[in-house]
Amino acid sequence: QLQLQESGPGLVKPSETLSLTCTVSGGSISSSDYYWGWMRQPPGKGLEWIGSIYYSGTTYYNPSLKSRVSISIDTSKNQFSLKLNSVTAADTAVYYCARPIVVVPGALGNRIGWFDPWGQGTLVTVSS
Amino acid sequence: DIVLTQSPDSLAVSLGERATINCKSSQSVLHSSNNKNYLAWYQQKPGQPPKLLIYWASTRESGVPDRFSGSGSGTDFTLTISSLQAEDVAVYHCHQYYSSPFTFGPGTKVDIK
User: Fold this and answer.
1) In B, residues 36-95, which contact A (CB 8 Å cutoff)?
2) Segment B20-78, tens digit of pLDDT
3) HEC per residue, B14-60
């Protein structure tokens, strides 16, 4: 059974870079049937898609965050990572990694479908 | 961006009764090439990540009880819990994967009356 687990600092100072890693177990991150993605959920609010990556390294980002976000993949470690720079209090949220399925046809320019499964999530607080 | 709105914001239903949640999209998520609606539903219990219930607007994920059903097409969708159980207390989110950026509805909280 595929499992995803987020890891990284729970506290980040304003203007610094948030860095998280998602470790995938029970399956290969190199599968062509899936993407890998990051979402976040501010306390008491809704879900926001941050971005996704294919095993080849092709990335897709939410335009609202594109200037500050970077997602990378390490197939040798079965991990993918998120970096969000210049953080503010507005970036305080529970960050989830998840596996989007490949759908054909997909949205223009990609084939990202629904997200399943999700990691347990990790709360990242931006505060000095 | 496609905006998803959900109604109601919250609802309380008696055990064994029907719960109905609506999701409205700002534009159609029906793909003309395959006649499929690019919409999913998730259940999120307190302190837990979202769990996939429904995809393609009406296809139930494996292992999801058949009291959960999805319907609708184009811009208007519904998630129905036919007979509410105590373990169904949660927030329910709709999600569109028709167009990037992929977006979620604000969620509907379901409680026991």
Assistant:
1) 38, 40, 42, 48-52, 55, 61, 93, 95
2) 999 999 999 999 989 999 999 999 999 999 999 999 999 999 999 999 999 999 999 99
3) CCCCCEEEEEEECCCCEECCCCEECEEEEEECCCCCCEEEEECCCEE
Partner residue facing A47 (CB), from B55, B99, B104: B104
How many contacts (CB atoms, under 8 Å) link A and B?
Answer: 69
Identity of the amino acid at A13:
K
Contact B95 A115 (CB under 8 A): yes
Spell out the residues 6+ positions from residue B7 whose beta carbon is closer than 8 angstroms to its own.
B21, B22, B24, B108
Q: Are A37 and A20 in contact (CB under 8 A)?
A: no
Q: What does the pLDDT read at residue B78?
A: 98
The confidence score (pLDDT) of residue B49 equals: 97
